């Protein structure tokens, strides 16, 4: 396998006193930055820094209004003539949102999967027609087709996703989906590959494997760039850094230089003050039945066995960590608990003492559960204001169909203030940085009193400062409300102190069930 980037030696991309325009404002004024072939860069900045706007500029999605944006490789391949920005490929969270659909798609995701005539397979998503965006009647020369198939086989083998090739894109796990999107970006044979939070949502084993893959890609001549909120979340081999603050380049150069070290800041985790308007509505200790009861649950899609003989009981107030490698069945298990999967009706699953079926409204279950997950986040990008997005939590919908009223809006505003987002209340949810969107969804999950809180990778993409703040908030919420908790993470340092039990899945089975979860996550 060889990337065309290996044939180029020179300045891949150059900003010469460049200024970009976003709407009616100018960003990254008078920016200077040069990326040479063979270099690996990290772009570091907090969630409101504007680092993703910078990438939009590099990809040609924002117009430069001053200075120059030069793609040095433009004459390397006829494909780049007139469209050099096509040489920059990326794997961003927004890519998943754009590809996977909106709120309606999420609501019907598993319920309608058996009614779909032809759900998109991973093999189709990675096909030449999809990747190169060819017309259905466009003829591809046999040699070009053979070259693509050979290149595709090499990429699939490199990433170890052969088993996903025959799976449907919308039902694979979040971690598996990230691997597939990485494969799609590589199949574009880019000159520069930009990766946002490359290790987030991936299990420990695959994070180590991905580190090796990145090193191998660099050896094959591919130029890499990583986006992260802080340097500690970048691969250790990244030596060149750009520091982004307030939509400006503050530093671009070697990681070890004094200029960069002077820009680094430490911040303290602020004291957690839960909203009084929310605390006054709590009624701790009201629940006596088991929150969740599952007995020998099995789920199978086609030939793929997702869950096998899974039994699990969660009592009121218990706090569980749910762990396991990517594809172990965690997302499917949570979808059963939340009533988002019709297989809940085909298995012995009880929520709050009642089984799914006649006389048991799914909405009566949902109103007692608050949840946040990467899958939910992918589909939640409706054109709502931030305040309205939080208010959907009162009804457990992904759109706001009715007026919340003054009291509920007041509680929603109080939660935004608690999370430091009060100034964003009237902004569009879809325009917020991904990390701030996730905090909005946390507020959405907490606005009403609940008996079960489900948090699937809630700290994804957050800096250490914001991770510590969020974990402290979760501990405070559990202590005040007494609700049960299911917490999914691949990193034990992200676990709140309230966790006492763990359920570990492996290949769809319960691999272990134990106390002291912080020593068991992997």
Structural descriptors:
522 residues, alpha/beta, 6-stranded mixed sheet, 17 helices
Tell me what you see in this structure:
By secondary structure, this protein is an alpha/beta fold. 30% of the residues lie in helices and 24% in strands. The protein has 17 helices and 19 strands. Strands 5-6-7-3-8-9 form a six-stranded mixed sheet, with helices on both faces. Strand 13 and strand 14 (354-355) form a beta hairpin. The longest helix is centred in the first third of the chain and has 18 residues, at 142-159. It is globular and about 70 Å long. The two termini are 32 Å apart. Residues 103-107 have low confidence and may be disordered.
Helix content: 25-40%
Strand segment count:
19
Note the overall shape.
globular
Gyration radius, in Å? 24 Å
Estimate the strand proportion. Answer: 15-25%
Largest beta sheet: what is the strand line-up?
Answer: 5-6-7-3-8-9
Give a short synopsis of this structure.
30% of the residues lie in helices and 24% in strands. The protein has 17 helices and 19 strands.
What topology does this entry show?
Layout: E1 11-22, E2 25-36, E3 40-44, H1 51-58, E4 64-71, E5 88-91, H2 93-100, H3 103-107, H4 122-125, H5 128-131, H6 142-159, H7 174-187, E6 192-196, H8 204-219, E7 223-228, E8 240-245, E9 248-254, H9 258-263, H10 276-279, E10 292-301, E11 304-314, E12 319-323, H11 330-337, E13 348-351, E14 354-355, H12 362-366, E15 369-372, H13 374-379, H14 386-391, H15 406-418, H16 434-446, E16 452-456, H17 464-481, E17 484-488, E18 501-506, E19 509-515
Parallel strand pairs: 3-7, 3-8, 5-6, 6-7, 12-17, 12-18, 15-16, 16-17
Antiparallel strand pairs: 1-2, 1-4, 8-9, 10-11, 10-13, 13-14, 18-19
């Amino acid at each position: 396998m060889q990337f065309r980037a290996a044939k180029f030696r020179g300045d891949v991309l150059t900003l010469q006193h460049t200024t970009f325009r976003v709407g009616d404002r100018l960003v990254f004024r008078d920016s200077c930055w040069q990326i040479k072939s063979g270099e690996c860069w990290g772009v570091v900045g907090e969630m409101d820094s504007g680092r993703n706007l910078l990438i939009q500029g590099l990809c040609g999605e924002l117009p430069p209004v001053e200075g120059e944006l030069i793609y040095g490789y433009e004459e390397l391949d006829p494909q780049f003539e007139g469209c050099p920005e096509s040489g920059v490929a990326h794997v961003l969270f927004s890519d998943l949102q754009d590809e996977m659909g909106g709120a309606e798609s999420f609501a019907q995701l598993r319920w309608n999967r058996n009614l779909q005539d032809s759900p998109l397979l991973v093999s189709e998503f990675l096909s030449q027609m999809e990747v190169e965006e060819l017309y259905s009647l466009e003829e591809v020369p046999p040699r070009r087709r053979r070259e693509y198939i050979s290149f595709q086989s090499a990429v699939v083998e490199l990433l170890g996703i052969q088993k996903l090739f025959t799976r449907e894109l919308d039902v694979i796990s979040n971690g598996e989906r990230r691997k597939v999107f990485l494969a799609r970006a590589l199949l574009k044979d880019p000159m520069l590959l930009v990766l946002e939070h490359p290790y987030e949502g991936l299990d420990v084993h695959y994070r180590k494997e991905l580190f090796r893959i990145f090193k191998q890609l660099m050896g094959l001549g591919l130029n890499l760039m990583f986006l992260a909120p802080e340097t500690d979340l970048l691969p250790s081999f990244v030596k060149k850094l750009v520091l982004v603050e307030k939509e400006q380049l503050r530093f671009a150069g070697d990681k070890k230089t004094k200029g960069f070290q002077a820009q680094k800041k430490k911040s303290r985790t602020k004291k957690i003050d839960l909203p009084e308007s929310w605390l006054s509505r709590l009624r701790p200790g009201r629940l006596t039945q088991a929150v969740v009861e599952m007995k020998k649950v099995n789920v199978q899609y086609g030939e793929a066995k997702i869950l096998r003989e899974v039994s699990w009981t969660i009592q009121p107030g218990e706090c569980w960590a749910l762990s396991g490698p990517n594809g172990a069945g965690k997302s499917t298990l949570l979808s059963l608990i939340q009533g988002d999967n019709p297989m809940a009706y085909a298995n012995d699953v009880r929520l709050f003492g009642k089984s799914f079926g006649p006389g048991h409204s799914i909405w009566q279950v949902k109103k007692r559960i608050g949840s946040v997950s990467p899958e939910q986040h992918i589909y939640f990008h409706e054109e709502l204001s931030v305040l309205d997005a939080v208010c959907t939590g009162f009804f457990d919908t992904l759109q706001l169909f009715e007026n919340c009223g003054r009291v509920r809006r007041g509680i929603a505003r109080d939660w935004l203030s608690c999370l430091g987002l009060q100034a964003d209340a009237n902004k569009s949810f879809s325009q917020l940085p991904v990390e701030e969107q996730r905090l909005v969804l946390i507020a959405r999950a907490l606005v009403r009193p609940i008996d079960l809180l489900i948090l699937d990778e809630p700290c994804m993409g957050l800096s250490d400062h914001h991770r510590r703040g969020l974990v402290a908030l979760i501990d405070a919420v559990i202590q005040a409300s007494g609700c049960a908790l299911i917490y999914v993470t691949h990193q034990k340092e992200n676990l709140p102190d309230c966790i006492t039990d763990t359920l570990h899945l492996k290949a769809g089975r319960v691999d272990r069930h134990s106390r002291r979860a912080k020593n068991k996550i992997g």
